[in-house]
Amino acid sequence: MTAIVGILCQQAVVIGTDSSATFSSGSQQTIEQPIEKLLIVADNIIVVGTGQVGLGQRFSAIVEKAWADGVFKNQPLQIGKYLSRTAIEDFASTHAGKGTYGALVAFPAKQKVHLCEFAVQDLQPEFKTEQMWYCSMGVTQTITDSFLALMRGLFWQSGPPTVNDGIFAVTWALDHAVEVNPGGVNKPIRVAVLGTHAGQAKAEMLPDMVIDEHRQNINGAKDALREYCRNLHRTDEATPNVPRPAQKN
Question: If residue 68 lies in a helix (H) or strand (E), which one and from where to where?
């Protein structure tokens, strides 16, 4: 089980995930183990998937080979179609069923960074844009999608966020998903950023220290909301009771 959140920010992409994997011997009994789900390819590409671990290994190998073969020099849509087509053909070669794997991939192409979702249902590529710049995948999708929609309504009304705001939102969304999920999703959360440095794209995993700094900001936001609620209670206590009209029989 997996929780994944991706945000196309201004000049960067932020992707985060949990670090829990469940294993089964074929019965209903499962065990949970920590695992690194985020993969950075050639310091330029972020890959994370949801579904069968073996299919994820094969998809990551496809991305690595595509980079080595120069596929990422093409137009973004051509890259997305190539990864989709190649993965579908590869999975079909061993009769893997549809709906068993999906992925988010962040990559640079044509002087920009891109976030592409490969849907679990059919592995078809969908690029995030300035009109819809975030997505989530995995068992907690209903939780994280709703949370991100709330964040958009509160903070991102004018367009995609800055990279710092993106890290803040990904961290909060994943921490929330870990806290309320029914099981199989767990800490530590991992966050990676694809941005540009001196005109060159670079992907990097954020250290725990940076994530903890954003958690401090999250706690500050929660404290502000609590204070807002306390002020509402004070206003209610200061407002005299207004008589209600008598109900007719």
Answer: helix 53-68
